[in-house]
């Protein structure tokens, strides 16, 4: 796609502030080896730049078709897949998950006591499909340690990691109590893997096959999947870990990465790799209210349902998030079915629009869709954790300041 900032309603010189910022502050200083940024509006590509290296150890530059680990940017894709099945009448959001995963019938809530013990209590209602889509299940497996239920589950998961499947994960989750009443808190973890398992159960297809047939092939997302094939291996980026005051540490070499082989655990929460071009097509489909190039992926009203705030009493994540996330990051941010939902600049204290939706990945990747402005943005790099630097908030300011209409 040809870059056309004027046609997209952007000031080209002001867009170049993005290049200067990320090159000068991050790439040239060695804080990250490289990154890739794409900005589109109204179906026109306004800005696309590849900066620095995708593989520092081999001196390989970032290319247009570099393949990145997108981790939690898998979650919106999984959520769309599950809601395609909602459109076929296969479930309701209020359905208890134990209707589809019988092992979950009888789950208890483990109420944490002052002495660190757990007191078992009955849930006020069963865990629902909507709870899974909104991360309000109370399930074990949070990314943030410290809760005895999480600690016990995570240890068991590590012991059973070899050969783990989505079915096996859901069976393992049934052995542990919920950490809170369903719907009471927002707790980031494995809920979207449960959504992926529901896709398998309801569709009768393996999760990777379903995504290929119903999303990736129709959207022509040719480089998105759960592994990197041999033909694409030379395009696969290295992944690095943040180190204070020194260059980042290589933590996943692309030639020896687990992504270079087929895996049994098809994580709907964080298992995909993709390219900027592929993910931008996914975002453009969302911006087009569920359609791209004449192919309908999700219904307009279904997408509206997914991108409104589902938190109780129109709350925000700063009030309801249970551990691990800073209050400032989530102030004025709601959550829908697979996406964070911006409640507007006054609420978030950041440039943007009411109703924009977005998410990011563990290696600092990010995207957002702003229906009010017709803007989509994709940011790719490979630095863990995603809170190492404020890439996302800085990019937001740099994009919006360049709009001309």
Question: What would you note in describing this structure?
Answer:
- The model has no long low-confidence stretch (mean pLDDT 95).
- A hairpin with a 4-residue loop joins strand 2 (44-55) and strand 3.
- Helix 2 packs parallel to helix 6 and helix 5 (166-173) crosses helix 6 (191-203).
- This protein folds into two domains: 12-75 and 223-400, DD-peptidase/beta-lactamase superfamily (Beta-lactamase, 3-Layer(aba) Sandwich); 81-203, DD-peptidase/beta-lactamase superfamily (Beta-lactamase).
- The protein has helices at 12-27, 74-86, 129-134, 148-159, 166-173, 191-203, 207-219, 276-287, 300-306, 317-320, 327-330, 345-348, 391-400; strands at 34-41, 44-55, 60-61, 68-69, 109-112, 118-121, 239-241, 249-252, 273-274, 291-292, 295-296, 333-335, 340-343, 354-360, 366-370, 375-380, 383-384.
- It has 405 residues and is α+β, with helices and mostly antiparallel strands.
- It contains 13 helices and 17 strands.
- 30% of the residues lie in helices and 18% in strands.
Structural class: alpha+beta
Number of H- or I-type helical stretches:
13
Shape: globular
Number of strand elements: 17
The CATH class assignment of the largest domain is Alpha Beta
Terminal Cα span? 22 Å
Q: Supply the CATH architecture of the largest domain.
A: 3-Layer(aba) Sandwich
Largest sheet: 8 strands, antiparallel
What is the CATH third-level topology name of the largest domain? Beta-lactamase
Strand order of the largest sheet: 3-2-1-16-15-14-13-12
Integer tally of domains: 2
């Amino acid at each position: 796609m040809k870059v056309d900032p004027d046609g997209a309603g952007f000031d080209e010189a002001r867009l170049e502030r993005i290049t200067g910022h990320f090159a000068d502050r991050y790439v040239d200083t060695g804080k990250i080896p490289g990154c890739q940024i794409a900005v589109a509006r109204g179906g026109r590509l306004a800005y696309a730049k590849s900066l620095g290296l995708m593989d520092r150890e081999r001196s390989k530059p970032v290319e247009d078709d570099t393949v990145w680990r997108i981790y939690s940017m898998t979650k919106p894709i999984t959520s769309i897949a599950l809601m395609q099945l909602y459109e076929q009448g296969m479930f309701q959001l209020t359905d208890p998950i134990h209707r589809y995963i019988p092992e979950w019938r009888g789950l208890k809530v483990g109420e944490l006591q002052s002495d660190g013990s757990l007191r078992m209590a009955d849930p006020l209602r069963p865990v629902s499909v909507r709870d899974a889509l909104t991360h309000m299940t109370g399930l074990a497996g949070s990314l943030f340690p410290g809760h005895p239920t999480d600690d016990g589950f995570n240890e068991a998961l590590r012991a059973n990691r070899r050969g783990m499947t989505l079915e096996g994960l859901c069976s393992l989750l049934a052995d542990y109590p919920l950490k809170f009443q369903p719907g009471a808190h927002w707790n980031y973890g494995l809920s979207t893997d449960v959504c992926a398992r529901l896709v398998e159960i309801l569709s009768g297809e393996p999760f990777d096959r379903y995504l290929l047939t119903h999303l990736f092939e129709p959207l022509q997302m040719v480089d998105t999947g759960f592994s990197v094939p041999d033909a694409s291996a030379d395009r696969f980026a290295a992944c690095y870990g943040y180190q204070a005051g020194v260059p980042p540490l290589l933590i996943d070499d692309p030639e020896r990465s687990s992504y270079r082989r087929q895996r049994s655990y098809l994580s709907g929460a964080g298992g995909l790799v993709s390219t900027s071009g592929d993910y931008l097509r996914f975002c453009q489909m969302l911006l087009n209210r569920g359609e791209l190039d004449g192919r309908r992926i999700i219904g307009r009203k279904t997408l509206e349902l997914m991108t409104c705030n589902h938190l109780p009493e129109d709350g925000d994540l700063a009030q309801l998030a249970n551990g691990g996330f800073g209050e400032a990051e989530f102030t004025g941010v709601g959550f829908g079915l697979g996406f964070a939902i911006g409640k507007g600049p006054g609420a978030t204290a950041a440039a943007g629009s009411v109703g924009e939706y977005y998410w990011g990945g563990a290696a600092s990747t990010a995207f957002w869709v702003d229906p009010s402005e017709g803007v989509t943005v994709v940011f790719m790099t490979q630095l863990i954790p995603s809170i190492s630097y404020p890439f996302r908030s800085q990019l937001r300011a740099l994009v919006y300041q360049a709009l001309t209409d």
